[in-house]
Amino acid sequence: MSTNLYRVQSGPEGYLPPAAASMGVMLPGEGESLVEGKVVPEDEAMKKIAEKLLAAKNPVFFPGPLILWAWKEGVAEKAKAIKKLAETAGAKIIPMPDYRPKYPMINPAVEINPNHPNLTIWHNKIDVCVFVGVHCHYANVALKIIRGGTDCYTIALCGEVGHEDAMITLRSAGLAEISKLTDIISQMREEIK
Q1: Does the CA dihedral 14-19-24-27 come out positive or negative?
Q2: Rg (Cα) of the chain, in Å, rounded?
Q3: For residue 118, which of 88, 89, 150, 90 has the smallest C-alpha distance?
Q4: Contact 90/118 with Cβ under 8 angstroms?
Q5: CA 31 to CA 166: how far, in whole Å?
Q6: Any domain includes 151
Q7: Structure confidence at residue 177 (pLDDT)
Q8: Is residue 45 domain-resident?
Q9: pLDDT band at 15 (very low <50, low <70, confident <90, very high)
């Protein structure tokens, strides 16, 4: 377990924020997650994600190619679960269908450019964003750019080991974890009423 004092928080942290890994933030183990650079149990992170999404003024999900394209068995089911999760949280969805640079011609209200995600966040006034289905190497760069130039709170639902540059990351986020998170958000929404 990491004992460093560096916290991964919303920015703007500057033109070149340090990579969280270089500041001592370690990826979580099985059954664990990261919340602002600290390793916590997965259930604690899910509750924090629910709190952040339900308190947000403009939460947005950014699904990437791993969830947008039916490239292997099970992806369509996971995509439906992500859509249900976003609806339950009252969040919009702005897709990231590929990683090619799209400037100077991009409509940030319709699509996110992973090379300049801050522009989409500024244009849409997004205060909480969720990355899901984005290849790890692109997610890490985009999350760092967002932290460096915006005050958007970032969440990454990763199918692999997580993203240390997100403020909250769930690792191994499969269909079961997505469904559990949806249930937690639904229950918390009922408690708020």
Answers
A1: positive
A2: 15
A3: 150
A4: no
A5: 17
A6: yes
A7: 97
A8: no
A9: low
Number of C-beta neighbours around residue 154 at 10 A: 30
Element (H, E) at 117: helix 117-124
Structure confidence by residue, pLDDT tens digits, 144-157:
989 888 999 999 99
Q: How many domains does the chain have?
A: 1
In angstroms, the CA 5 to CA 3 distance is 7
* Sheet containing 128-132: order of strands: 38-41, 32-35, 168-170, 153-157, 128-132, 59-63, 92-93
Q: What is the domain range of residue 108?
A: 59-192
Backbone conformation region of residue 158, classed left if phi is above 0, alpha if psi is from -120 to 50, else beta: beta
- Tell me: pLDDT of 29 over 80: yes
Note the Cα 70 to chain centre separation in Å: 21
Measure the CA dihedral 134/135/137/139, to 10°: 10
Identify the residue whose tokens are 């952040």.
Answer: 52
CATH number where 140 lies:
3.40.50.1220
> CA-CA distance, 51 to 59, in Å (whole number)?
12
